[in-house]
Amino acid sequence: MYQNIEEYIHSHRQQMDVEVPDDAVWEKIDHVLDQKSRNLWERYPWLKVAAAVLLFAVALGVVMKTSRNGNTQGIVADMPDVELPITAEAWKDAEAKYESRIEVLMKQIQQVSIADDPQALEYNQQIESINADLNKQRMLIDATTYQPSQGKRMLELYEQKILILNKMTDHLLKPAE
Question: How far apart are the C-alpha atoms of 73 and 61, rounded to whole Å?
Answer without folding.
Answer: 18
